[in-house]
Specification:
The chain has about 350 residues and is an alpha/beta fold. The protein is about 35% helix and about 35% strand. The radius of gyration is 24 Å and the shape is globular. Belongs to the GerABKC lipoprotein family.
C-alpha cells in the first residue's frame, strides 16, 4: 500500500513538471483583437493588452501588424512585444466590414483549433474599421472589459440575441441555420455603440439589420428577459412597455408542409403613458398595437431573409426534424424549399397597466 502511494506521488510530480507554466507578471494577456483587410489583401490586426497600474487604473496597450494569415499576423505582433502574448484572457474579437464581406473562414478556423481561446469570447463585426474601435478610450477599466460588458448587458437586458464564440461556431458549421453577429460602430474616441446585426451566409456577411429591427429579430431568434419597447397609440399618445419577457415556438403546419407557424408570447408592464389616465382599456389597446406591430415587422424580416437566402432563425432545423431523409435535401432546402415557404405569425401580448404617467 505504501509503495502504491509512493508511485502515485512520484507520477504526479513528474507530470506536473511537464506542464508549461506562465508567470502572470511575465506575459501579456490579450483582452481584445481587431482584424481588418488591408489594401494589399493582407490582414491588418491589433491586439489589445490591459496593463493594471498600481492605482487600480487600466492602461490600454496596443500591438499592430500585418500578415497573410492570422497566424502570420500574430507572429509578427509577438516580435513587437517584450513579453509573450497569450490568448487565455481574450474577451472580444472584432472583424472589420471589408474582411466580413470577403469572408472570415481563416480566422474562424484558427479559433476552432486554438484551445486557449475560451468559448465565451464575444465575436462582433464593425461598421468600418475594426482597429478604429480598439483605438478609442472607453473608461477606466480598459477597452476589452468595456466592450465585453457592452455586449453582455445588451444581450441580457436589451435587443441583442445571445451570442458568443460557441454559439457562432454552432451556427457557422450547421447546414440548416446561418450565423449572425452584433455590429459595433465607433461614434468618437470615447464612445462606441451596437449599430446592428450582421447576417452571415457561411463565412461571409451579406446583410446588416439596423438598430430599429433588433427588437423584432431577438423575438424571432431568442427570447427577451427584460426588454423595452415604445408603442405609438395615435393622437400623439405613446406607452413605454418595459420588463418585457418573451418566448417563441416554431412549428410546421400539419395541413400545409410549405407553411411555418410562429407563436410568440410577450409579457410586459406599461411604465410610462403620455395620456391622461392609464386604464385596462388602454392596456388592451397597447396589447393589440404591439401584437400588430410584431406580426407585421416579423413577416418583413422573414421575407427579407428569404430574398437574401439566409436563415438566421433556424427554420431549416424545423424542416429537418419533420422530413425523413432530409440530409439528402440540403440542396433543395437552400435553393427551393426555403424560398417557397409561407409563414404565419401569432403574437399574444399580456400587458400590466402600472407605472408612471407623464
Amino acid at each position: 500500500m505504501i509503495y502504491r502511494y509512493f508511485c502515485i506521488v512520484v507520477t504526479v510530480l513528474l507530470l506536473s513538471s511537464c506542464v508549461e507554466k506562465s508567470i502572470i507578471d511575465d506575459i501579456n494577456i490579450q483582452s481584445a483583437v481587431a482584424i481588418d483587410l488591408a489594401d494589399d489583401d493582407k490582414l491588418k490586426g491589433m491586439i489589445l493588452v490591459q496593463n493594471y497600474l498600481p492605482d487600480q487604473a487600466v492602461e490600454n496597450i496596443r500591438f499592430t501588424s500585418t500578415g497573410k494569415i492570422r497566424r502570420d499576423l500574430l507572429l509578427n505582433i509577438q516580435k513587437k512585444s517584450s513579453q509573450q502574448i497569450v490568448v487565455g484572457g481574450l474577451m472580444v474579437s472584432i472583424f472589420g466590414d471589408k474582411i466580413s464581406k470577403k469572408g472570415i473562414s481563416e480566422a474562424i478556423d484558427a479559433y476552432q483549433r486554438d484551445p486557449g481561446i475560451g468559448s465565451r469570447n464575444y465575436l462582433a463585426t464593425s461598421s468600418g474599421s475594426a482597429l478604429k474601435i480598439l483605438e478609442g478610450e472607453y473608461g477606466p477599466r480598459g477597452n476589452g472589459t468595456y466592450l465585453r460588458n457592452l455586449l453582455e448587458h445588451n444581450i441580457q437586458y436589451r435587443d441583442v440575441p445571445e451570442t458568443n464564440l460557441h454559439i457562432f461556431l454552432r451556427d457557422y458549421n450547421s447546414e440548416w441555420k446561418d450565423a449572425f453577429l452584433p455590429e459595433l460602430r465607433s461614434i468618437n474616441n470615447e464612445e462606441v455603440e451596437i449599430s446592428g446585426i450582421s447576417l452571415f451566409k457561411r463565412d461571409k456577411e451579406i446583410d446588416v439589420l439596423p438598430k430599429d429591427k433588433m427588437f423584432y429579430f431577438k423575438l424571432l431568434v431568442d427570447r427577451h428577459s427584460n426588454g423595452n419597447f415604445l408603442v405609438e397609440l395615435g393622437e400623439n399618445k405613446t406607452a413605454m412597455v418595459k420588463s418585457i419577457k418573451s418566448k417563441r415556438k416554431i412549428k410546421m403546419s400539419r395541413k400545409n408542409h410549405s407553411q411555418m407557424i410562429l407563436n410568440i408570447h410577450i409579457n410586459g408592464v406599461v411604465t410610462e403613458y403620455t395620456g391622461k389616465k392609464m386604464s385596462k382599456e388602454i392596456a388592451d389597446v397597447v396589447e393589440k398595437e404591439l401584437a400588430k406591430k410584431v406580426n407585421a415587422e416579423s413577416l418583413k424580416l422573414i421575407k427579407q431573409f428569404q430574398e437574401k437566402g439566409v436563415d438566421p432563425i433556424g427554420f431549416g432545423l424545423v424542416y429537418r426534424s419533420k422530413h425523413r431523409g432530409a440530409i439528402k435535401k440540403i440542396k433543395n432546402w437552400g435553393e427551393n424549399d426555403y424560398k417557397n415557404l409561407s409563414f404565419k405569425i401569432n403574437t399574444k401580448v399580456d400587458i400590466s397597466e402600472s407605472g408612471v404617467i407623464e
